[in-house]
C-alpha cells in the first residue's frame, strides 16, 4: 500500500485521498482507516492527505473527522450520510457539523446516482459561506485550473454546463440523440427536443492559453 501511495506522489499528484467510498471505507474499523491515513502520510511527504468521511450518521461522521484530524490528516472528503437519503437541509447540517468537528478544510463529494442525495448548486452556494468548505471533486480539470487562475466566472459557466450534461446522461429518459444511439442499452431513450437542444454536439470550451 505504501508503495502504491508513493508511486502516486512521485507521479506528481496534488494530494492523496484515502478510504474512498467505492473502496473498503465502510467495511473498515475506525482504527484501520487511521492506519491507512498514516501510511499515506508517510508516503506522500509534504503533499496533503485527505480522509474520506462516509458514515451512516452525522454523529459517526463527526467522530471520524475528529479522529483523522488528531492523526494528522490534512482535510476531508465528505459524503452525505448513507444509506439514508437526506433532505437538502439535513445534508447541509451533516456537512456543516462534520466541518466543525474536524476543523480542517473539506471537499464535498456529490454522486447522486450512487447515493441518492444530490448536493445542488444552491446547496453548494450555501456551503461556500463556510470557510472550511473549500472544494468539490471534479473530473473536469479545466474547472480547477480556471479557479486557480482566478477566472471564477468562466469556471462556473463550465461547471453549470457540465453538471446539466451529467444529469441528462444519468436519467434513462434523457439520453442525448447521437450516432451511438443504437449501441445504448435499454432503458435509455432519446432526449426530448428541448433537452437535446441544451447540449450542442461540440462544447464551446474555454482555453487556458
From TrEMBL:
One of the Pfam families matching this protein, by short name: DHDPS
First-tier enzyme category under EC: lyase
Low complexity composition-biased segments: 170-190
Any one Gene Ontology molecular-function term assigned to this protein's record: 4-hydroxy-tetrahydrodipicolinate synthase activity
Gene3D superfamilies from the UniProt entry: Aldolase class I
Keyword Transport on entry: no
Keyword Zinc: no
Keywords: Lyase
EC number(s) per entry: 4.3.3.7
Organism, scientific name: Rhizobium mongolense
Region (Disordered): 170-191
Identification of the protein by name: 4-hydroxy-tetrahydrodipicolinate synthase
Matching PANTHER family: DIHYDRODIPICOLINATE SYNTHASE
Amino acid at each position: 500500500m505504501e508503495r502504491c501511495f508513493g508511486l502516486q506522489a512521485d507521479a506528481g499528484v496534488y494530494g492523496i485521498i484515502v478510504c474512498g467510498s467505492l473502496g473498503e471505507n465502510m467495511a473498515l474499523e475506525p482504527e484501520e482507516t487511521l492506519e491507512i491515513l498514516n501510511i499515506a502520510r508517510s508516503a506522500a511527504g509534504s503533499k496533503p492527505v485527505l480522509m474520506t468521511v462516509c458514515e451512516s450518521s452525522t454523529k459517526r461522521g463527526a467522530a471520524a473527522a475528529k479522529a483523522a484530524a488528531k492523526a494528522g490528516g490534512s482535510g476531508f472528503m465528505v459524503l452525505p450520510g448513507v444509506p439514508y437519503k437526506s433532505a437538502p437541509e439535513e445534508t447541509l447540517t451533516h456537512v456543516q457539523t462534520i466541518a466543525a468537528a474536524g476543523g480542517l478544510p473539506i471537499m464535498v463529494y456529490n454522486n447522486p446516482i450512487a447515493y441518492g442525495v444530490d448536493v445542488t448548486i444552491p446547496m453548494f452556494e450555501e456551503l461556500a459561506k463556510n470557510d472550511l468548505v473549500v472544494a468539490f471533486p471534479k473530473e473536469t480539470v479545466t474547472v480547477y485550473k480556471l479557479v486557480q487562475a482566478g477566472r471564477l466566472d468562466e469556471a462556473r459557466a463550465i461547471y453549470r454546463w457540465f453538471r446539466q450534461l451529467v444529469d441528462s446522461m444519468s436519467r434513462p429518459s434523457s439520453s442525448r440523440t447521437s450516432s451511438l444511439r443504437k449501441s445504448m442499452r435499454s432503458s435509455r431513450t432519446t432526449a426530448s427536443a428541448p433537452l437535446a437542444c441544451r447540449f450542442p454536439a461540440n462544447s464551446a470550451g474555454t482555453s487556458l492559453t
